[in-house]
Specification:
296 residues; alpha+beta; Nucleotidyltransferase, domain 5; 2 domains; three-stranded antiparallel beta sheet; 9 strands
């Protein structure tokens, strides 16, 4: 049996909301035991630092001082959040075997071809975090995956497979999982799946569209009830990404709200979320065709 480790995961959300922390015990294969979690909201200054770094990265200003400042600030924020989390849970550093640092993504482009391998740029210095916390740190998962020829999300599928395998009453069938975040990521886990049997990819945008819409139209964090505009929905469905076969991945900035700009706040919110649901439904159709017994 593989060794079971207690791992602390830490990531700064692309939405700039704050840092999420969670502890799990796992052997990396079929044992997953969830532990405590914590959310540490970003201060206003941190949101400004990160926003400036994202803008610089999107504009290709790789050596910009804004990026260096944000990298230092988010690294310190990670250390403070980890220390507060362990203190809250009355845990010692020796109780944690490893810290997994997701960092904060300031630029992401999926591979377009063998000649255009893609890039995921995440700030947050793992070496500094390891030195300050005196706990081993593993990081740059997404960037490492892209460098190895992947699409920048190597953990999701493996985690869901291990989670399903660890269920006492695990389903005796294939399972589809929806991970709705800034992007919507879907995972197909066949029954008794091995690591090579998984299919995981970004079906399309997730909450990022509604975040952008509410910032643009209402300055609120909730979605009012409205009607779906079918023409706007049809136009969004023509995005070339949706015609690409999986595996594939996107960045939260790859889709926008342009087709909803003339709609009311209520109808725009409803239409954008209908598009998110439509993208996920397309993945469901693909998964159904992959299930045992499905017609080919």
């Amino acid at each position: 049996m593989s060794e079971t480790l207690k791992a602390l995961g830490v990531i700064s959300r692309p939405s700039l909301e704050g840092i999420d922390l969670a502890i799990i015990e796992t052997d990396g294969d079929g044992v997953v035991k969830a532990g405590p979690t914590m959310h540490a909201p970003h201060a206003r200054d941190m949101k400004i630092f990160l926003s400036r770094a994202i803008k610089a990265a999107q504009e290709g200003r790789e050596g910009a001082a804004d990026i260096g400042r944000a990298a230092g600030e988010i690294t310190s924020a990670f250390v403070i959040a980890i220390e507060r989390f362990l203190e809250r849970e009355k845990m010692k550093r020796t109780d944690i075997d490893v810290i997994g640092v997701g960092g904060h993504t300031i630029f992401s482009r999926a591979p377009a071809s063998a000649d255009a391998p893609g890039r995921r740029w995440q700030i947050g210095d793992g070496a500094t975090i390891a030195e300050e916390t005196r706990i081993d740190v593993v990081g740059q998962f997404h960037a490492g995956d892209i460098a190895a020829g992947g699409y920048g999300a190597p953990i999701n599928g493996a985690y869901f497979r291990a989670l399903i395998a660890s269920m006492a009453d695990r389903p005796q069938c294939a399972v589809g999982v929806i991970d709705l975040d800034e992007t919507a990521r879907v995972t197909y886990v066949p029954e008794n799946a091995s690591a090579g049997d998984l299919l995981a990819y970004d079906s399309g945008p997730g909450t990022s569209l509604l975040d952008a819409w509410t910032s643009y139209r209402t300055q609120k964090n909730d979605a009012p009830t409205g009607a779906v505009n079918e023409e706007a929905l049809r136009m969004m469905g023509l995005h070339p990404y949706l015609r690409l076969p999986p595996p594939k991945s996107i960045d939260r900035y790859d889709f926008n709200i342009d087709h909803a700009l003339k709609l009311s706040p209520e109808d725009g919110a409803a239409t954008l979320m209908a598009f998110v649901a439509d993208c996920i439904a397309r993945a469901g159709t693909l998964f159904a065709a992959m299930a045992p017994g499905a017609r080919r």
